[in-house]
Amino acid sequence: MFRIRRIFDDAIPVNQDALRQVKAILQKRIPAVSEQEIAHLGDKLRNPFTLRFRPILFVAENMRHKVLGFAMVLHEPDINFCFLDWIATAKDTLRGGLGSAMYERVRTECAALKVSGLFFECLPDTPGECEPDLIQDNIARLRFYERYGARPIIGTGYEAPVDPKDTCMPHLVYDDLGKDTFLARSHVKKVVRAILERKYKDLCPAEYVEQVVASIRDNPVKLRPFCHVRPHKTRRAVHDRFSEKIVLVVNQDHEIHHIHERGYVESPVRITRILNHLEKSGLFETLETRPFPDIHIHGVHDADFIEYLARACEEVPADKSLYPYVFPIRNKTRPPRESTVLPGYYCIDTFTPIHRNAYPAARAGVDATLTAADALLAGRRIAYALVRPPGHHAERRSFGGFCYFNNAAIAARYLREQGRVAILDIDYHHGNGQQDIFYHRSDILTVSIHGHPEFAYPYFTGFDDETGTGEGEGFNCNLPLAETVDGKTFRSALMRALAKVVAFDPDFLVVCLGLDTARNDPTGTWSLTPKDFFRNGQMIGAAGLPLVVVQEGGYNTRNLGVNARHFFEGLAQAVFTPTRDRTLTQSPPKGIKFRYAPMPQDVEKIRHLVTATGFFREDEVEIAAQLVAERLEKGPASGYYFVLASKAGRLAGYGCYGPIPCTLAGYDIYWIAVAPEFQGKGLGQALLAKMEQLITEARGHTIYVETASQQRYAPTRTFYERCGYTAAATLPDFYSPGDAKVIYNKPLKTNSE
Fold first, then answer.
1. How many angstroms separate the Cα of 5 from the Cα of each of 118, 242, 330?
2. Does 393 participate in catalysis according to the annotation?
3. Residue spans of beta strands (DSSP E) within 395-489
4. Residues 724, 693: contact at Cβ < 8 Å?
5. φ/ψ (deg, to 5) at 60
6. For the whole model, what pTM was predicted?
7. Mean predicted confidence (pLDDT) in 345-351
8. Catalytic residue among 171, 296, 355, 393
């Protein structure tokens, strides 16, 4: 028994161990791969722009996580093709079920990416072209691929040696993924150029690349006839849906908790309606709930509260519900003695009852949520805990808002043992439970988008000035919104929330999914549509983090299912096919206008923009504003030059650069900042390109950029590397112990060159 899963990064131990095993297989089975390339395999997954391809790594492993084989695919979204870089098993052959399963998974992934086809290399099977002892293995390998319709491209100089002494040069093989389409000459030229200039950049001189590209003359390009398999026996068909699944864990015991009082909207039918739609999507793989010990609940809830909830629910008559109605001041040393009064001591509202089955249902929900969280630690990328009762209103020592145990907080603490965790609450109502539980902590970030407490439950928390206390100062973020909110307004807040999450640099993200933000929800006032939920899912998935989604609110049973399905479709598209709709180069958004002379009002505009990114400290924000002020005061003598991008009169982003004193033609780039709503749309690249153009016109020769080595700055380093900058120097412990200064540079071509 084995399973094939995708390795997205090396952030968690199970993936780190898998990569160690992959490297060992590489060293054993493909000895021609350099030690440096093997050592930097994890870096390539985190930073695809070092390759100028987007790598996709699959491993086949048994139930004990022993890697039996792997495949590495390189996706080029601009030219729209995939290249199978490596495929290997721990044993000596691809034949048999394991090799077929891995190659079929690769084909499925490539088809889901909507690429023109899959290219790869195979050594020749013709006697005399390779050493005799290799020919039989080469025949077996090409026979294996012919079974899927893949054959070598012929009539080109791809097999021409770089050095005339070289022998056994590989064929370029093409698999059309069952589409049976012509292979256009212009497309093959682009593919071959990309392979030779990127994968073999250290081996293939420019003149060799031009020679091989020029040798591609046939249109359409021809494939070798079948040599080892009869054409009618090939298995060319492939479905084009991604194979990776979202783990679904359902609290099967939720139905026992059913309050029949009129108006109690938190009912079992909520789960049924969601499941009915999710089952149609084909996105999910169900896992059975596993039991977990109470210690995980005690990690976020007080012992006396847990003991009270268990005892009170057991003692209440089966057909009765005990509602809080008296709310004594919570003196922990003197709780009320009267059982009918005691609920108010542990509850925050009048409509969440003590019920016979509330505790066992909530306890089962904790097990389901921890099962989902544990799936991330086993290497899965997304897990969904479909649970009720919900949990995000449950505080350390109180219940309320239909919530008894805080499932999301329990999952976050569980995941914290393996890395940093952020909680993003997108329910209509404030996530007061997580705020209360982690308010004093800096290792778990809590972010909540919700209706303003002036009009929305729970009324007493969720204000934007609640930012944490003590060590936790700055690690709680509330984004309260107005009573009327549409999808566009919500996405603007979500962009700000995600910027805060990305700046925190977590290893895991826990999402509290509230569907009560939808139009016509009986507990909300907003108007999000299914399309809005799809886009929200895309945005959250694009953060690139392992996700556990925990179900919270949502009470309009007519649209619950369709909204949930759209959210997960957007999430899955962003996470499982992150390369399909992105290119390696982007154009700036339409309507952007550039100017180069700062105005007095730009001081505050830039201060506001840099603050809104959520990435910079207060002192860094002030430095950004001071540079503008100095330019306004001293003009060019300040040494600071600006490129400002605006849309409809609003500052969308800016860059600041200047000549380096005591150098002949060196320039520094001091700042690039983009407003949250414009991030990910190519504006940063456009600002950088404008500055490079201006520096070139000023006869600048080299640009330098400085950044930090911390993981939270990985996207910044990726950005510059993608734009052609090279890490020229590293100064260890420059900013703080373990945080080095990384200096990038990029030589420019001047007009005289």
1. 19, 12, 50
2. yes
3. 421-425, 444-451, 476-481
4. no
5. -105, 125
6. 0.79
7. 91
8. 393
